[in-house]
């Protein structure tokens, strides 16, 4: 089973710092790149991580704030310079479309590929995109502007057929996919060999949830129940809860509560406020609630097995 790999390109918040870039990630799954948010600096970090820009087919934008979208103009332009011809799909709140149209008209007019915008209904939990590998669900966030997180759910693979069974019962190649899909096999003498005896279960499907800027909202935990890996913003420590409430962000303690109630396997916290000088304090706060927590950092690469 090939790993699903999360690449962190940026995990800071709105105010620039010397330590962190604004929000951006790539989820690599079965050879495809799904970008999540696109803050400034994505191109440089992608080059440092040896991530090909032309492999990005879909970009999912959580909300129309600069630290999550200001990397788009440069990325779209560079893709054209690299000779892109394939369509680029951008998913995000309806409010993003005006910004995107200005970018395409003013800075990217005449590019040789099509940029398609797909509006996301940010107050609904529903499938916004799917292909042969994955379903992508929106997760309503509670922020100052319309905002959605994203849940990536790998599609369950078919069972594996046992090679020794193929040989023992002379099963033709033409029937293998039918058996994987649930069919039994009948031998020449009329004996029915059940599907369960002919196959072994596929590995469990995996999932990743990205919870962007939001106030603490426990309903989110229900939507991502059992998620393998959760990224949740943790802009402030609990001692700055009043500031978190004012700016519609979460604390590290609250992010950990979401992970705990969601029964997540692992939590990554990020989107650090520029006023936080020692992020280890955020980690300590989160681990008191949810032990399996790590800090996000630029160029962090994590596999989901």
Description of the structure:
There is one protein chain. The chain has helices at residues 42-48, 66-69, 72-81, 96-106, 163-168, 176-180, 195-198, 219-223, 241-247, 252-262, 280-287; strands at 4-10, 24-29, 32-38, 56-60, 88-93, 115-120, 127-130, 134-140, 148-154, 160-161, 185-186, 192-193, 199-200, 207-211, 229-233, 266-270, 293-295, 301-304. With 305 residues, the protein is an alpha/beta fold. It has two domains: 4-157 and 203-304, Ribonuclease Z/Hydroxyacylglutathione hydrolase-like (Metallo-beta-lactamase, Chain A, 4-Layer Sandwich), CATH 3.60.15; 160-200, no CATH class. Strands 6-5-4-3-2-1-18 form a seven-stranded mixed beta sheet. A seven-stranded mixed beta sheet has the order 7-8-9-14-15-16-17, covered by helices on one side. A two-stranded antiparallel sheet has the order 10-13. Strand 11 (185-186) and strand 12 (192-193) form a beta hairpin. The longest helix is centred in the first third of the chain and has 11 residues, at 96-106. It is globular and about 75 Å long. The model has no long low-confidence stretch (mean pLDDT 95).
How would you state the average pLDDT, rounded? 95
End-to-end separation in angstroms reads 8 Å
**Percentage of β-strand residues:** 25-35%
Give the overall silhouette.
globular
Q: Report the uncertain regions.
A: none
Give a short overview.
The chain has helices at residues 42-48, 66-69, 72-81, 96-106, 163-168, 176-180, 195-198, 219-223, 241-247, 252-262, 280-287; strands at residues 4-10, 24-29, 32-38, 56-60, 88-93, 115-120, 127-130, 134-140, 148-154, 160-161, 185-186, 192-193, 199-200, 207-211, 229-233, 266-270, 293-295, 301-304. It is an alpha/beta fold and 305 residues long.
